[in-house]
């Protein structure tokens, strides 16, 4: 029996099931899901102490409950969303892998795991169970790779307690942690998804640029060099997006990477280069970052007939110091302004006395 939200008793059991760190039984179930350790794990699972709970009782009575609903929030999606890995593993094992992966707004369980499972354990198992999840999209056309590209964690390290055989018996050890860990798992399961755009025409690399995930940009470039040239529905590259969102670290990365010089002067559907946008956003630091690369063209004209120099005079309000600085640097580097030249001709013509 279900309620108005299409939830069964299993959904409620998943919600009230106590979340806890995986013990011996759960680790045995984890290994059982992997082909390499399947036989050994079955023995370990049988020998482990059994703990009855509502989820197991319901699944034992009717394993098909895990396969409902086929659309909407499934028990597996709910378990992962609530970060209850042990419950998710119970659902998979007791259903024999015959369960629904669907979630809210067209998402699937992998979408939820990408946002919730920072250590990537559940991500790895979802990919092993159903690799097709990597290409499925939500209502906005986002794949799990789009979600993974939007994650921005600082590259760093974390503490782990290590046990010793002699005093002091334990010690804290630093372990490195990479910000692209989740991204790598999802990408390597299905690399072609990097070329799949959402409903706004944005590819995963555009999503990464919008949040300032430089490591993700670098990862995409290393794995799929041609992906850096992908354009969204507005004709923008990831560099256009980074400039628009003021992601300075990404702009610096492009500037110092010689092999990326070819995208510096790419123009969007409005004819704007990254330099045009840097001036439009009134970011002097962004402007200087781009100007520091000699490959940047200073005199390209957009669809409105404007060069970067024109924009520095017309789009930035008077009285701003960086307006004068930007204009000074452009003139110093011999940037031309067709509009200024036209204005000069008109002034001369108008001021010239008629005969």
TrEMBL record:
InterPro entries: Ankyrin_rpt, Ankyrin_rpt-contain_sf. It comes from Triticum turgidum subsp. durum (Durum wheat). It comes from the Eukaryota. Keywords: ANK repeat, Repeat. SUPFAM superfamilies: Ankyrin repeat (SSF48403). GO terms for cellular component: plasma membrane. Gene3D superfamilies: Ankyrin repeat-containing domain. This is Uncharacterized protein. PANTHER family: ANKYRIN REPEAT-CONTAINING PROTEIN ITN1-LIKE ISOFORM X1, PROTEIN PHOSPHATASE 1 REGULATORY SUBUNIT.
């Amino acid at each position: 029996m279900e309620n108005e939200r299409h939830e069964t008793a299993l959904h409620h059991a998943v919600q009230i099931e106590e979340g806890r760190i995986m013990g011996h039984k759960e680790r045995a179930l984890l290994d059982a899901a992997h082909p390499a350790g399947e036989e050994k794990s079955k023995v370990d699972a049988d020998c482990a102490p059994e703990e009855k709970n509502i989820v197991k009782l319901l699944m034992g009575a009717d394993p098909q409950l895990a396969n409902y609903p086929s659309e909407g929030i499934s028990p597996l999606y709910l378990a992962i969303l609530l970060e209850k890995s042990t419950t998710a593993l119970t659902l998979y094992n007791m259903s024999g892998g015959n369960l629904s992966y669907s979630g809210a707004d067209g998402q699937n369980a992998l979408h939820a795991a990408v946002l919730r499972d920072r250590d990537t354990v559940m991500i790895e198992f979802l990919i092993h169970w159903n690799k097709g999840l990597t290409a499925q999209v939500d209502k906005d056309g986002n794949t799990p790779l789009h979600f993974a590209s939007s994650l921005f964690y600082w590259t760093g390290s974390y503490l782990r307690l290590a046990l010793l055989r002699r005093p002091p018996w334990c010690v804290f050890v630093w372990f490195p942690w990479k910000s692209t860990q989740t991204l790598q798992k999802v990408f390597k399961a299905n690399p072609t998804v990097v070329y799949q755009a959402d409903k706004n025409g944005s590819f995963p690399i555009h999503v990464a640029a919008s949040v300032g995930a430089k490591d993700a940009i670098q990862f995409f470039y290393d794995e799929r060099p041609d992906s850096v040239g992908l354009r969204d529905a507005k004709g923008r590259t990831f560099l256009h997006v980074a400039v628009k969102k003021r992601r300075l670290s990404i702009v610096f990365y492009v500037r110092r990477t010689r092999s990326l010089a070819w995208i510096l002067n790419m123009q969007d559907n409005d004819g704007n280069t990254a330099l045009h946008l840097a001036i439009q956003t009134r970011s002097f630091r962004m402007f200087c970052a781009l100007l520091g690369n000699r490959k940047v063209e200073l005199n390209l004209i957009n669809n409105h007939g404007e060069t970067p120099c024109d924009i520095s005079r017309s789009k930035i309000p008077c009285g701003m110091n960086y307006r004068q600085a930007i204009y000074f640097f452009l003139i110093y580097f011999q940037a031309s302004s067709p509009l200024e030249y036209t204005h000069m001709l008109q002034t001369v013509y108008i001021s010239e006395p008629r005969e």
